[in-house]
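Every protein is a chain of amino acids, and every chain bends into a shape of its own. The fold becomes a row of whole numbers, each drawn from a learned catalogue of backbone shapes. The protein below has been through that process, and both of its lines are reproduced in full.
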Amino acid sequence: MQGSGWSENDVLAKAQELYACGKNVRFTLMEEWHALRDQPRYGSQVGGNIGSGSSGSKRSRESDACGSNTVESSARPIGREAAKKKGKKKSKEYASEQANNIALEKTKTKKMKMYLKLTSEEHLDDRKNQLLKKLEAELFDN
């Protein structure tokens, strides 16, 4: 809504007028606003590109005003193809992780079946007794 050739005072006067338009109440926090207006969050919203030394384009001022809550970054955003590759990589990693978990569960199930079979037998020879102790250690000490 800033007109061509408007100063900062003209913009503030118009803002106060718009604020009081429907409420018949005057904006009372001007001192606070003046104290905070030069802070980074508000610097790009008032007076264009403050501190840049150049006027910049209209598009850059609008994007600054819209994105004032985000942290500025000089890094270029990720492209569509790179994002797709990243997503596919994550899904492949997830699938391999799930396959590993399933394999571990199958192994643990086999060991548990073997343990139950050995504990149900009444007389165990030395080899089976050693296997039973080994299975107990693996299954219940972890």
The chain has six helices and no strands. Helices lie at 8-21, 30-36, 40-43, 58-66, 80-120, 126-140. Confidence is low (pLDDT under 50) at residues 61-69. The first helix runs from residue 8 to 21.
